[in-house]
TrEMBL record:
InterPro entries: Znf_SWIM. This is SWIM zinc finger protein. Transmembrane segments: none annotated. It comes from the Eukaryota.
Length: 490
């Protein structure tokens, strides 16, 4: 039975050197002077804003990322700052996300270059710092850049949260629910965060698992000496950026992202890889139905990244740099995977309208892919140097399948798949049959196996009905139909 949406229910009832004066974040002394002047202008303009009606403003505001925040714990000045930031957010384009010398660095472009540091214990950048200096010059109140950035970060890192419940904004410019921003990012890992924010992480960005030789050829021809872009090795394209560029260009060329190759659009492809501002502008013009904006596709890609990192952790891949964020082990991977499954469930049920057929199919595809990835990893994930001591580690801390499926029945993935109509998952019946066979070999709780059998029976009945009738067109992604006209990006 299709799920009931909220609206329906209502109707029914820093790269390598850490020198303070270096160009690690491109915040030179001349920039600081100009920025301090601009921040003073910003402060004056904010003070000159009309304060009428302050007492009538609601205690809950919604940000551009669609998160809601309660402001009742903030001072009147802080509430005004947060409201202004979310009502008229700064036009910022994120460029970089990395961990260096025990602090997280973010680079972004406004009219002038901005950089933000989120320091951890022992870092000389302890706390939150923005290169606009507004945080230091206004008694520690967060500037609009910090408020905007932290909202974008929380949108990615926050799992197990009901979006209908507003978050509690703190005077530091971040919600109370995430605790400390540095610890929150550290548990999430900055390279996974960089993917979600559509930005570059120099420590992990290039990778070595891309077979996109055509993309490499294209990027080789681009101007790698462009001013302000010296931090990115353009001779080795970023796999995640390549994937997103394909998703965007496929939306205007009626080609599936997996099949897209830079043909006549090679120049645009090259520009989207090399120029952050152009990439973010192009991204802002994409429709909500385009692959690059499909939330289920994005969450599935996050799990793909996490599983790849888990495999590399167990293989002891020497090309992977040691991370100060902690091991990419089974516990880390399980936290991401269960969080993603919860986000998929949230995206299905907490919306104002029912899912379109292509959205239901995308959600089912993501869930089936996640389940397949976990079931095929019924083995120990321990680095080569620690295998002699592996017996002292509990099995569920080294075996992903056992942790999520094999040890106890918590309805992993199946509880969400069961709530989708059968036609959503019916196209993936063959993959589910393979998973069912693997469960028979690996072993799983009897109640979980019974749930799986019940799901398969429903899907087979649906498939038999569908095979005797005209194929449904609803599972075709709206933005990729062959009869769809090309979209013009202005």
């Amino acid at each position: 039975m299709p799920p009931t949406t909220r609206s329906q229910a209502q109707r029914q009832v820093p790269q390598q050197q850490d020198d303070e004066d270096s160009s690690e974040y491109h915040d030179s002394s001349s920039e600081s002077e100009s920025e301090s002047g601009s921040s003073s202008d910003d402060a004056m303009s904010e003070d000159d804003d009309d304060d009428n009606g302050e007492g009538d403003e609601p205690d809950v505001v919604t940000s551009s990322s669609k998160l809601s925040y309660r402001l009742d714990r903030l001072s009147p000045e802080d509430r005004k700052r947060v409201r202004k930031t979310f009502k008229k957010p700064p036009q910022l384009s994120l460029k970089l996300c990395l961990l260096h010398d025990n602090h997280y660095g973010f680079e972004m472009t406004e009219l002038v270059h901005r950089s933000i540091r989120i320091g951890g214990p022992g870092s000389r950048w302890n706390g939150l710092h923005c290169s606009c200096r507004a945080t230091d010059s206004r008694d520690g109140l967060p500037c609009k850049h910090l408020i905007w950035l932290l909202d974008q970060v929380v949108k990615q890192t926050l799992y197990d949260h009901d979006p209908s419940s507003p978050l509690t904004m703190t005077p530091g410019g971040f919600p109370e629910e995430i605790g400390d921003p540095y610890s929150d990012i550290s548990a999430f890992h900055s390279d996974v965060l960089a993917d979600g924010l559509h930005v570059f992480n120099p420590d992990f960005g290039t990778g070595d698992d891309s077979d996109d030789s055509d993309a490499s050829d294209e990027s080789d021809e681009s101007d790698s000496s462009e001013e302000g872009d010296t931090s990115r090795p353009l001779d080795r394209p970023i796999p995640h950026r390549i994937q997103e560029v394909r998703e965007m260009l496929s939306a205007i060329s009626s080609t599936a992202p997996e099949d897209f190759r830079p043909d006549l659009l090679a120049t645009v492809f090259r520009m989207l890889l090399a120029n952050d501002e152009f990439f973010h502008y192009f991204l802002s013009q994409m429709r909500s139905t385009d692959p690059v904006n499909d939330p289920f596709r994005k969450l599935s890609q996050r799990v793909d990244r996490v599983l790849h990192e888990l495999d590399a952790f167990a293989a002891g891949d020497p090309s992977r740099p040691a991370s100060a964020e902690g091991p990419r082990d089974v516990a880390w991977a399980a936290r991401h995977i269960t969080g993603v499954v919860a986000l998929i469930r949230t995206n299905i049920f907490t919306r104002e309208r029912p899912l379109e057929p292509w959205e239901r199919s995308s959600a089912a595809r993501a869930l089936v892919r996640i389940l397949a990835g976990v079931v095929e990893r019924n083995r120990d994930f321990v680095p080569p140097g620690l295998r002699t001591a592996a017996s002292s580690v509990p099995r569920q801390d080294r075996n992903l399948f056992l942790r999520l499926v094999g040890d106890r029945d918590e309805g992993f993935v199946l509880n969400v798949l069961d709530l989708l109509p059968p036609d959503a998952a019916a196209p993936f019946l063959h993959t589910l049959e393979v998973i069912q066979d693997q469960l028979g070999v690996h072993g799983a709780p009897a109640s979980y196996v019974e749930k799986f059998r019940s799901l398969m029976s429903r899907l087979r009945r649906r498939a038999s009905v569908g095979s005797s009738s005209t194929p449904a067109t609803g599972s075709k992604r709206q933005s990729q139909g062959p009869d769809r006209g090309s979209k013009r990006v202005k």
